């Protein structure tokens, strides 16, 4: 379920306030491959589990936020630092 464009315009990283955009499908595939291999942790250090349906990435390419059932999970502790997933940023 895609995020409404008006909502996407107002969303930003909760800490840095950098704008976000949808993560491209090919980059989402790279992220999900790394998640499946158990290589991805959130900002709190917890393993990211399960397939990521959709995701938002900050425009500076540093953090990914998952979107579950059309709902952006914009909590700092659930952010996924991109430096652990080469090819996503």
Task: Characterise the protein shown here.
The chain is an alpha+beta fold. It is 20% helix and 20% strand. It contains two helices and five strands; from the N terminus they run αβαββββ. It has helices spanning 5-10, 25-36; strands at residues 20-22, 54-58, 63-68, 71-72, 80-81. Strands 1, 2, 3, 4 and 5 form a five-stranded antiparallel β-sheet that branches. A hairpin with a 2-residue loop joins strand 3 (63-68) and strand 4. It is globular.
Write the layout of secondary structure elements.
Blueprint: H1 5-10, E1 20-22, H2 25-36, E2 54-58, E3 63-68, E4 71-72, E5 80-81
Antiparallel strand pairs: 1-2, 2-3, 3-4, 3-5
Q: How far apart are the termini?
A: 23 Å
Backbone CA Rg: 12 Å
The tally of beta strands, per DSSP, is: 5
Structural class: alpha+beta
Average pLDDT works out at 95
Uncertain spans: none
User: What overall geometry do the principal axes of the alpha carbons give?
Assistant: globular
User: From the structure provided, what is the oligomeric state, counting identical versus distinct chains?
Assistant: single chain
Percent strand equals 15-25%
């Amino acid at each position: 379920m895609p995020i409404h464009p008006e909502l996407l315009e107002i969303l930003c990283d909760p800490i840095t306030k950098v704008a976000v955009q949808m993560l491209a499908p090919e980059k989402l595939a790279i992220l999900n491959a790394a998640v499946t291999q158990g290589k991805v942790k959130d900002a709190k250090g917890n393993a990211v589990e399960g397939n990521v349906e959709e995701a938002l990435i900050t425009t500076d390419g540093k953090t990914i936020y998952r979107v579950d059932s059309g709902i952006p999970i914009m909590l700092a502790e659930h952010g996924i630092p991109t430096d652990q997933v080469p090819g996503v940023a």
